[in-house]
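Inputs:
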Amino acid sequence: LATAQDTQPVPLPSQARVVICGGGIVGTSVAYHLAKLGWTEIVLLEQGRLGAGTTRLCAGIISVAKPISIESQMADYSNALYERLEEETGVKTAFVRTGSLCLAQNQDRFLSLKRLASRLRVLGIACNVIKPKEVVKLHPLVNIHDLVGALHLPGDAMASPPDINHALAVAAARHGVQIHERTSVNHVLMEKGHVTGVETDRGPIECEYFVNCAGQWAYELGQSSEVKVSVPLHGCEHFYLLTKPHHQPLHPNTPVVMDMDGRIYVRAWQGGILSGGFEKNPKPIFTEGRNQLEIQNMQEDWDHFEPMLNALLRRMPSLDSCEIHQLVNCPESFTPDMRCLMGETPGVHGYFVLAGMNSSGLSFAGGAGKYLAEWMTYGYPTANVWPLDIKRFGNLQSSRTFLRHRVMEVMPLLYELKVPRWDFQTGRQLRTSPLYDRLDTQGARWMEKHGFERAKYFVPAGKDLLALDQSKTFYKPDWFDIVGAEVKCCKEAVCVIDMSSFTKFELTSTGDQALELLQRLCANDLDVPVGHIVHTGMLNERGGYENDCSVVRLSKNSFFIISPTDQQVHCWSWIKRYMPSDPQLHLEDVSWKYTALNLIGPRAMDVLSELSYVSMTPEHFPTLFCKEMSVGYANGIRVMSMTHTGEPGFMLYIPIEYALHVYNEVMSVGQKYGIRNAGYYALRSLRIEKFFAFWGQDLDSFTTPLECGREFRVKFDKGTDFLGRQALMQQRQEGITRRFVMLVLEDHDAELDLWPWWGEPIYRNGQLVGVTTSSAYSYTLERHVCLGFVSPATAGQNPTVITPDFINRGDYEVDIAGQRYPAKAKLYPFSSLFAQQRRRKDDMELSNFQGK
Amino acid sequence: SQAWHTYYLTPPQVNSILKANEYSFKVPEFDGKNLSSVMGFDSNQLPANAPIEDRRSAATCLQTRGMLFGVFDGHAGCACAQALSERLFYYTAVAMLQHETLAELESAVEAGRPVQPVLQWHKHPNDYFSREASRLYFSSLRTYWQELLDLSTPGEGPDTAEALLSAFKRLDSDISLEAQVGDPNSFLHYWVLRVAFSGATACMAHVDGAELHVANTGDCRAVLGIQEPDGSFSALTLSNDHNAQNEEEVRRVRAEHPPSEARTVVKQERLLGLLMPFRAFGDVKFKWSIDLQRRVLESGPDQLHNNEHAKFVPPNFHTPPYLTAEPEVRRHRLRPQDRFLVLASDGLWETLHRQEVVRIVGEHLTGVHQQQPVSVGGYRVTLGQMQGLLQERKARISSTFEDQNAATHLIRHAVGSNEFGAVDHERLSKMLSLPEELARMYRDDITVIIVQFNPHVIGAQ
């Protein structure tokens, strides 16, 4: 281990394969895992001493109680890794498997803990929902008078972060990783979109890969390179208290306590306690960058800590007489959505990022380091990490002001109760449709996706608006009837939904390069007559969905690609990755140029034909067709005979300057057909009852078209060896081992019972077979519908091929917060739902899978 | 010993009384930068008289730069204070205009073209303007600017101090003249007499960049809050009270009358034994000869014949005028440490020492930063002790932040402070629930304007 104890620092190598910037726990974990996977010529650079940043001050808790499963999985892996590190390296890590207790002060919190327990059981992680009385047996100091219940996680642990950091460094060094302390990276060198090296304060190093694990400074470092790399994170001060030993010293095995309602965590520390929390009014720091404060010199702020001290003494009253040792202020970095940033940055090949741990650095470092190393080695990790993929963000989340405001919301949110369909409140109204104000005055309630405001539903005049916004429940929400009315209108008359948030690209070429590229990227056949719309997946080599989109052939050599909103960065970089550098081939992001209105419902046809003097009947305008038409006074509107729900209707792609005009015309003509505005919740309900999968929610890069019943959209014989074809051929031969199903809850009372959300375990004949991915109340069926994947093998043996019998013959149950509700599993949507209109065979094609 | 029956007011009720007249104005920012030396102001008033006899005004001069702030403390009714609150700023603004601007103004009025506005008012909804007299007021104002136009020469800007002096004196003489001339409309005639026979003191500030002028007539007061390098606040009074406590004023008043009147002109610390302020607007009873007073009253409308106050002639009334509206004008060049200016009627200064006023406002404006941070250092402190300490500190801060408006906060202290200088809810509740007829015995009308300065702009000038 090359350390700074040597008076003469070891000279830097002039070249390496990988340079990792950041010697905290995250950087050393990445180095460790890369080395384990056989990488050589790895150089790790640390500007100060190893672990001198946040790692040094981290509270040292490893817990699987995380909001999403991939995070729990990472923590579970980290836990196992740290446990064996001492044996592997001989470095003492102070690892103790203490277990942890998540306390619930109210029923809603208890429900969220029970939901967590259901989720952890799917991952095979031990956990017990316990009564307050049992808490006393596990922890001597906890006051249980105000508790409703708790979740005990026996596997959770504590360790010393700097020691784990050191152990990982030692192990990495043994595998040949070169570690250089007191070496700062000034900037990363790039050429033609590839990393070529780094410039340090001790000279340059040539390299192919660069990993930004700079923690607090990752944003700065990203901004400092020639092509700016957006690493959206921002620091906040984080406080925890250390006490001197309690008069009856706490045993080191005492479980960690997480009292989220009190916003605090408490662990044993040298006979006393260590307790910190996530306050309502966090203090953001380093907004202006690194040349402000040293991490070491952060001030204690007792007045700021007061609410957490109150919560602590309420939870453990006997600490009243315990003496203070220190109040530690340790900056932590937070991201705009509470999830870490992982993966290759869009636009720069070889530039990887792992940062923004949202104060769970120790819990995540092991697992995240492993996934990133796999990503660099195999091109993608062994698990679906899309929720953590840095490509879910773009430049638009990189404003310092946005980050500062958003992290002030994110930090308190870590311990706040999260009920279904909560939305961020800060950093809003960044991207809006030109109709925003019009819709807002008509009662629109908004949600945000990728910075874009989208209407959830429209509150009718006279309803109590305030009360509606305050609805937070695991049960039936108070927008139920509002959305019900919108759905009814979509089914019986006509609704208009503003869907401008979608990602829209145009791909053009002089020759047939555009078609060639799309034929390679898409599983469906794009060589269709001009004006046709094709729904298709863009698959990876494994046959999994990287994107799910609709492609319109505008002319022989130009295509209009419509993808989900949050695909803006990911899809762009996916296409760019396979796009030859040909000046004749041109890809343009035209998302901002068009306002998209969805006219949905049986009378959509009438409204549109009245506005355009063109017959819109299926004979004149077959489904999945695109025509440029005039609507009202506006010309050149792209009208597409498709909706995103399976209901009849049209999508209008309107150049933005016409948006208000077209909207007004549609609304005024539509009046006699009973037109009204509808929002995304109505859309959701419609698409889920029609069994439509959405990318990002139901579909991910590990799901193939065969697994979700979309073989008809894969054209094996189109004459191009499209990406993923081999894998799909093989899967077609071997058969699929998991299948996307629709589960209709039975014996579930929407009025009284807990509502499903997503992530609920699915049981078949009492055995765990899968997890739901989305759910909605179907106003047509008057039942809840859950979508999800089931798979016969969960016990660890070889996966078995799934058969229709497996689906059809089995008693299914969906577990909502520990309570199981019987469900009917279906492979096809209810045909009765399609009764309003005679359908042809290709009606399945009408479905569009990207409403997300 | 408190004889009246009190109603217990809940904290929200107390707040609704205290906040009923509060007003805040923030100078708008451009490109995130505030280029004005004034960041904004908070103002508020709490009545003791029914109706309140204090008035306040604030406005931005549109033709020249600068902002105007004024408090007006009326006596013998509110008519004079009301008139000042409407008119004095127009007189001041007009007196500060360039010759060319005046000429343009006059030609616009002459030709019936729309006139460029002179002032942008910042008014609370309760601050009203009297419609009936506006024509009369306008014609007096126009006569004033016509004279200014004749006196000034092109290319020359008037001196602010002179303009203030001229405006004060001119308005008082117009009030006097309007009452003497009367008006064919009997309501208006009665109105101008009421204005002239009541009185009001005025304290007014003009801020333009780093230039601050204070013009004062009477016993309202302007105090500057200065932040010392250690963070504490000290007070600098920018006006002299014109009353018996001011020896120079007593000397002045005596010098203006024959030695034979030396004993009577200031008696029981009052002018002629009657009037507390030694300078004031209106109050023609102290200005006009007895003859003139009689003549005006006899020709006046019937309502006046029964008005004992108007008919009453002060004793020892030999050599009028005894009273003047001439202000003392003081110029002050603002420095970055000058953080705010408090203009208030004597109702405030009677209850709180100026040093206390400046401390309360300063701590309110700077907020919690004033508090020294807690540090454990090497001491042995238990969690329980620390919790107690922190809760105490929080309580202190929360009383500061109950009021968004610094003027409200100051009034809360003025009315509700106990012997330890802390706001006592019970006392506050009692003081605010006093019946109308008793309130005036325990406190006076209080009017406060707090102007906050922008040290960055001032420092740059």
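The interface with chain B takes residues 241, 243, 299-303, 305-306, 309-310, 312-313, 319-324, 326-327 of chain A (CB under 8 Å). Flag for discussion at group meeting.
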